Each structure stands twice: as structure tokens, then as C-alpha cells.
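ESCALATION

Customer reports they have been waiting on this structure for their group meeting. Please prioritize. Original submission:
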Amino acid sequence: MAKKILLTLAKFAASGALIWWLIDKAMADAASKGLDWNQGPRHWDWLAAGWLATFGCLVITIVRWYYLVRALDIPFRLRDAFRLGFLGYLLNFVSLGSVGGDFFRAVFIAREAKHHRAEAVATVFIDRVIGLYILFVMSAIAIWANGLMDSQVPEVQAISWLSWLSSIIGGVGIIMLLVPGFTDGKLSKLLAGLPRIGPIMGKLIQAVRIYRTRLGVLAWVSVLTVLVHSLATIGIYCIAKGLCSTVPTLAEQFVVVPLAMVASAAPLPMMGLGAFETALDVLYKHVPAMVHPTTTEVLKIAVAYRLIQLFNALIGFIVYLFSRREVADIISHADLDAGPIENAEDAAAEVDAEAARASA
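Update from on-call: job pushed to the front of the queue and completed.
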């Protein structure tokens, strides 16, 4: 437990250090150029469009997860997907350490899909993997199209190499999973026979086998994922148009934003707090573009984006008001040192058992 607390504190410290560095840089930038934080336009129509695009990202992400669950023939209603999705989104902001939105989604769906628990929990993992992989692929395409691999900026080079390596490794992994010999052969049996995690690995492999026969669903989910990342880019562009006098074009934003989103995949609190903002500042200044926003402008864009995310999370708070007891039960029974899938199944089983004893 002490190790978990220290790790959580280290994550928040890293996020805080990055944010402080960006604020200090923005203050120095403003002082040297005579800029004022309160200066600049306030185009509320563009900001409203930015909110709409960001909200669309959230909605489509939930729909994507719904299709992944239904592909496994698990009884699951769209309204339940929205209920759990919005609650999970809220918990990404208010929870600490590993007890985030994905964990709670996994626990909730494990409880509701009693006869398909491990497969249901696997959908949360697969949903996150698909989202990240498509993001890496979109970033790799942007890097190739703009020659960023030859950039002399270390930060841009690091993000570029991360995107390309993740795309290649992920592509190889996907091909291996689609080959029947991998999920039906000796290796799958070996993984399923491992102590403690073996049964979980077996269920994950079974889910992969089913998805292999649902390639149409996977293709549709991939299209939805491209739409999610595209809307995120459009949302940032609209926010920039609402707060800045001159901004990079939408085409240039499709280079900057996906790469910054790659950085936000870092294991930091509140969905990469600090990493996204810092990457956005570095990329705006060093990728090919006709306009390079100042650090003050970048900070405005990032703060507005975070506020819009928090506003969207209010829907999750409304859901929470109707699910407080359920959430409290899950928190009290969660073993934070266990793996996410095993943790979700164990926590759900304990809560169900206690509920049965109480009703008896």
C-alpha cells in the first residue's frame, strides 16, 4: 500500500512539475513580449463548436465500446454503455492511481454480465488498445507526410519514434492475434495454464478468437476511432480559433494534436495532465506550420480544453449521484495491487457475495 501511495504521489508530482514549467515559461514569454493573459479574442461560437466536437469524441468512444461488447454476444444495452461510459469518464478525473475510469467500467460490466465476466472485462482492455493503436497510426502517417523523423528537436524526435515503433509493434501483434495458430496452438494453452493469471489469459484469448470472426465489427470500430481522434483535433482547432487571433490551419492541427495526444498516453493523472500541455507547446513551435502560437496562447488552449473535458464529466457526476452506493462498494472491495482484469472480477464477485448475504 505504501508503494502504491508513493507511486501515485510521484505521478501527481510529475504532472505538477510539467504544468509549473509551462506556466513559468508562459509568464516569461508574456513579460518579454508585453502580453497579457486577458488579452485576445473570445469567440464563443468557436468555443461552443470546440465543446461540441469534444463531446462528440466522448459519445463516439462510448458507442465504440458498446459495439465491442455486443460483438461478444454479451447482453448489453446502449443506455447502459452510456451510463458506465460517462461514469468512467468522470472517474478518470477524480480517482487516484490505478482506480480510474477503465477500472470502474471493467468492474461494472463484470457485475452486469455475470455469465461472461472475463470476456466483458476484456472489452475494456481491447477498447483502450484499439484507441491507442489508431492514434499511433494516425500520428505515424502525419510524421511521414511532414518529414518529422528528420526533426532536430529532441522532443519531436522522441514522440515521432514512439509513434512509429508503437505502430509497427502493434501491427505485428495484431497480425499474430489474427493468425489461428497463435490463439489456438500450444502458446495459448501455455498462457492459459499459467498460475494465477492463467484463467484470465484464457478468457482474453477466447475473446480474441471471437473478434477474429467479427472482422467487420473491428473494421467499424477502427473507423469510429479515426472519427474520435479527428473530432479531438477539430475540437482543439475550434478552441484555438476562439481564443487566439491567428492559429495554425486545420491541416496543420492534424499534425500537432494527434502527436500531442500520444504524449497524453503517459501514465499520469487526469488523462496525461502536464504531458499533453507540454507536448502541445513543443509541437506548435517546431512542426512545419505557417503560424506558431506563443506559450501563453498554448496554455490558454490547453486550459480551455481541460475545462471543457471537466464540463463533459459533469454528466458522469449526475450518473454518480444515482450510483453512489454501488461506487462506494466497489472502492471498498478493490484490491489496488492486483491486475486490472483480475481486480475487476474479484471486486465484482466480492460485492455480489456481500449483496447476497445482505439480502438473505
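Sent to customer with the following note: Confidence is low (pLDDT under 50) at residues 335-341, 347-360.
Escalation resolved.
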